[in-house]
Specification:
It is a single chain. The chain is mainly α and 714 residues long. Among the domains are: 183 residues, Serine Threonine Protein Phosphatase 5, Tetratricopeptide repeat (Alpha Horseshoe), CATH 1.25.40.10; 95 residues, no CATH class; 149 residues, Lysozyme (Orthogonal Bundle), CATH 1.10.530. The chain is 73% helix and 0% strand. The protein has 42 helices and no strands.
Amino acid sequence: MLRPTAYCHLLTVYWMLSFAGLSANGIFHLADSLYQEGDYAEALYHYQQLALSDRYFRQDFIVNFKIAVCYLHGTAYQQSSQIFEKLRYQQNDIPEYLDFFYFRSLLGEKRLPAAREIAGTFFDKYKRHYLADSLRLQLADAEYKMKNYLAAELHYAQLPRNRNYKDLKPYLESQIAFCRMNRGQEKEAVDRMYQVIKKYPSKDEALKIAGYFNSKQSLREKYFFTIADVYLEHRYYSDLTANLESYIKGAKDKNEKERARFYLLKVYYARGDYQKALYGFKSMMDAPGDKNLDSRLRLMIARTLLRLDDKKGASEAYLEYSDKYPRRRIAADAAWKAAWLFEELGDTRSALTQYQKITDHWSRSGYQSEAKFRTGLSYYRLRQYPQAETVFRSIKNSRWDNFHRERASYWLAKVYQKTERSAEAETIFKDLSQNLFESYYAIKSYLQINNSINQIVDSHGSLINGENPLRQYTQSIESVIDNFAKLFIIQDLLGDSYAHEELEEKRYRATTLGEWIALAEVYKRLEAYHRAFRVYDYINNKYFADLSNEEKPYLLKESYPLYYDNIVDTYCQLRELDKNMVLAIIRAESGYDRHAHSWADAYGLMQLIPPTASAVADEMDFELSSTQMLFDAEVNINLGTFYFKKLLNQFDDRAEYALAAYNAGPHRVNRWQNITPDDELDLFVENIEFSQTRNYVRKVMRNYWIYTFLDKIN
């Protein structure tokens, strides 16, 4: 059996071979390097050379497992299945992985009966293992391809219950529907298909179903506007336009014809033909028609005017909507949009009126707290300081959460500065900065008094020499880590992702400080850095909450680590960037997870979206052949630092402006900076339109100040 001691012995043998200068060792390391990079064809060649040249390696479990994986990736399924089958009968620590990859090889050979048998055994022995669902999905797809629709449906139906498969739910639901359709259960199938396209109109499965509905006359007539929604979502403008024009000509019901006209105008809008769309929307508003379309027409007129850069007209249209339909779900959205347009038009008084209106009329909306704060901020900008003071003080003394009260306190101190009450302002800043590093406004308050991060170092830097209580757990860490030897074998054989899943599968639950630290160190060794620093955050909150951050720099260093710092250093020196800022961005963007892929389709450590990455690569004359390259740490940091440096240059080295542009796009920052032409940095940050971007800028700046502090005390 491949026990941890045997694995260590194997590594020792490799080291001895290296020390002796034998060629087998060089071949092994070359093959392993190619294997880890995913170059399986070249790795296979060298592993085969290794097996031919040395009997020990020829019989070695690890080498043979890797050879089988190389065959599998090269679609040489017969060879891979033969090796995996042989390895299954050897004693080893990873029988579930051997069964899983043997199953995959059998599917590749199209030996479905044998694959079913292995799957059945797997479900009996490892039904709760994370690989079981992956195996079941592959088996379901294979059954579907072989037109075994009942078997396929039974497997698909068991998968949606798994929370890890929530992103696959549209696919699974649609596959179940098509299984039923192919089994003659048309009504049940169509009902399920309809639910899929209503719930997930933006998914590919919805488009597939819409195409199916569109091909059947009875279904096309019944679900015409549902199909239109899907086609509009997927930008199938030509097909949709043809469908709508045909429908308008043939429709007998006046309201249905008006509805089709409205959809056609939405196509013009989506295509960017705003003048034509606006003319049509206004014509429909002026002509008596379907009253149910009135609210939708008003919204589309407002949006179209905004697209045409008619901010005044758009603000008036949004106001008309919110006044006429105050009880509608998006009435507060419309009022909020109008307020922001007034901000961009420089009409602070009208914006103030809207914020007060939102606070009074839509107190339960998601805008209520921000609207009240912006009421105070508007008074501040209008230099009506007594009124601003009243608003900020009321928030400060409210029962709102700490963030809102700290924010209001900070601005109350700013009001005191403007009204020559510097002593009162300083009292608030000192009070806020008591919990230094806890929040953006705490550090901002400290800097209001001390002007420089260097003074934080001068006053707190000596604490770095204090006792680090984590060191006493070093020996216990090593003993606990020995229990995770299987994870390191899996990492070597199959990579980080399988090792991470295996660790989650073990459901290891630490109970003592030493065990929690050990768990964090395991994550580090698995290069799951995003999980390691979060464990240390938990340790900080559970075991060291009574200490201020300045008193525990040893934990700050774990929560603000220097992962990938060699790569960061290289490109920051190349581009004359502050490495602490880049580390701060990485921490905020991905939490050091190089495999991060967001809902916004952003990739890797610095969360680059493909269009931006492609444009930057072209500008750098860098060959970016696929989006998968963005998961490579060096590629991602190379492109990300180039782009951030470009934004810094564009916005005169003002970090907050560049960060806002990095998150929301430079075109939006150009708009937002016009709201505060006096160039007061605090006002710019508060006048970022999107709360997500405001919070992002605050988070990165807080990260930056902490990284700078740690860098200087080191």
